[in-house]
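Support case: user asked for a sample of complex input and structure output to validate their parser. Sending the pair below.
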Amino acid sequence: MQNSNGFNNYLRQQKRNKYTVILIQTLILLGSIVLWEVLARLGMINTFLVSSPSAIFTLFMKYLQDGSIFTHVGISVWETVLGFVIGTTLGILIAILLWLSETLAKIADPFLVVLNALPKTALAPILIVWVGPGIKGIIVIAITISLVTTILSAYNYFINVEEDKIKMLKSFGATKYQILTKLILPSNIGNIINITKINIGLSWVGVIVGEFLVSRYGIGYLIVYGGQVFRLDLVMMGVVVLAICAMLMYQMVNLIEKWYNAKNNSSKL
Amino acid sequence: MQPIIELIDVSKSFYTNEGEIVVLKNLNLTLEKGKVLGILGPSGSGKSTILNILTNLLKPTSGELIVNGKIGYMFQKDNLLEWRTIKDNIMIGLEIQKKITTEAVEKIDRLLKVYDLWDFRNRFPRELSGGMRQRVALIRTLATDPDILLLDEPFSALDYQTRLIVSDDIYKIIKQENKDAILVSHDISEIIAMSDTIAVLSKRPATIKNTYQIELTVDGERTPLTSRNAPEFKNYFDKLWKELEIYAK
């Protein structure tokens, strides 16, 4: 079918708007890096406090050449992945238990609410003492941060599944377990993906806090070490690397979500 | 006539922290073989409570319940699961009862073909119209081979035109598949068009206030659409209207 002129114009306009936005975003990013570098070279800002893009890049190349950046990134990423995978899985399992037993949910409610309101990073020092320093302690911190919100939001999603649909399954004689596997879980896959996305961010918080406290490897270690010895190029590099890692991980879950949506929106004919 | 379902002196109370609410009081109902029983009542009169007692979702506080046969429940909303194809939606009852056999699947295929859903068997619910979805919901109920169908305001979520067509469809399916049915509704013309007997509920606590045998003179086969043209239709409508009007005051 031939598109009308008006529609073609509309599409063109949409495309142009999209490109304009990307162009301006790139300009802002490049512009501020250039401005930063120029100001640093002209001595108008104190490089001791803010470092400079070229210094950060040089340092990054150094870490890249001796390969130590891979150790740091690898360890942090590993801790984060374990943190959110365990945190999300465990949280959903507990939410399922609460869904299975209303009494249990009522008993747990005040505890969960208090734990949820408490900033979990406050528990980090205790956890380190209990679990021990090193990767184990850091992963436990990461899990703790995402666990309670996962339980609360997953449980909330579970109990908000349409009552009528549950009744429909019950009219066929469904057991509670069947209602769980045939209705509650499948209807909440989109929500579980969303919880996972949030947990990636939370898990990074846990890992970085943990590495600040006790660690000799990882991006958090680089940042806190750089800060202690006033090497701002090291701190900045750590932050940039962290931003890139977090973004890549988030994008990966985005791809999974897209794949899930695409699969769900196409009928098998 | 042999009764398929009998409720004898059934009462049901709900308890809340505010006190006791008596919803049904000494209710007597009979469904005969091959018939459609309509239950008409104002909203909040306990119609759904009766159906929930029949399907064992609720226990009566007192009274006796006799059900000779298997019950299938059809809801106001189609309650199709969006992530399942039409055929998988229809299979869910069998899946739950772990009764998926080649015979059962063949029966579903037959139903899909007879009721014009075969071409849509691999589509998802959102690709179907409201009327088609409701037909899928009925076939889902029929797939588990019930003897008695309970229809809980099954058309009220549809627009008026679709509603007339779908109620015609569903009525024909019930008759063709040889099922007995209880239809619950607050829609007077719909319930006259579909039922052989109509029981009118009183206000809460509900008892049966009056029972009407619906006898209509129609040319040819009786369907909800031809019933609406029967000369007696208006009379029944007026009588039932008066029964309900009392509550409006």
